[in-house]
Amino acid sequence: MIRYLLSAFDGDGASFMWAITAILAFGLAVVIERIWTNRTRLHADADAIHNALDGGESDLDQYAKEGSPMRALINAGQNAESADAAWDAMGAVVARSEPQIHKNIPYLATIGNLATMLGLLGTVYGLILAFSALGDTSAGERAVRLSEGISTAMATTAYGLIVGIPALAAHAWLDSRARELTAQLEAVAGRIALTKRG
After folding, report:
1. Which of 21, 107, 143, 177 is the residue whose CA sits 20 to 30 A from 53?
2. Buried b / exposed e across 178-194, counting CB within 10 Å, b at 16+?
3. How many domains does the structure of the chain reveal?
4. Cα–Cα distance between 133 and 177 in angstroms, integer?
5. Is 1 within a domain?
6. Neighbour-count burial of 153, counting CB atoms closer than 10 A to its CB (0-12 exposed, 13-18 middle, 19+ buried)
């Protein structure tokens, strides 16, 4: 299969194959950037923060990375004078953090759709090539052109799906992770606001 797809980069559907490859490269860049950002800048140990709050601990910064939304949320909540002020300050932090948490993730859904559509366009192009071979040509040439057209159609379809399906899966996974991070921020904000009331 891999050899078949690689050979399609030299055939009639090469432009579609290269376009899908460009989309694949962009998708990989988005996935790598999001995974790296989640691990290095956005990660916080929400369970440890809840346990620390249960134990009456006030130094929560150690559970969230410097510059992370969770650290900003903790600082905003703890520096506020009242529970209402803390809730408002932490709500502002969550609202500011959401674009950072969801950054670039919607592109993956677009990449999945574009790769599939380009594969389908390559399929149509390949079928046009195949059916154009049915005109006034010799039997040998007709068979060659028919074979090349069908090969182009199948290769672009397969490659579009090979790129599109993982892109949609990555979108679903990263989007659920982003929603989970937002939910963690909101849960910690609620706990900090409660401690301010108490």
Report:
1. 177
2. beebbebbeebbebbbe
3. 1
4. 50
5. no
6. buried
Q: Which residues contact 80 (CB under 8 A, 6 or more apart)?
A: 86, 88, 89, 90, 196
In a domain, 153, yes or no: yes
Q: What is the pTM of this model?
A: 0.84
- pLDDT tens, position by position, 56-113: 777 777 777 788 888 888 888 888 888 788 888 989 999 999 999 999 999 999 999 9
DSSP secondary structure string, the chain?
Answer: -HHHHHHGGGSTTHHHHHHHHHHHHHHHHHHHHHHHHIIIII-B-HHHHHHHHHTT----GGGB-TT-HHHHHHHHHHH-SSHHHHHHHHHHHHHHHHHHHSTTHHHHHHHHHHHHHHHHHHHHHHHHHHHHTTSS--HHHHHHHHHHHHHHHHHHHHHHHHHHHHHHHHHHHHHHHHHHHHHHHHHHHHHHHHHHH-
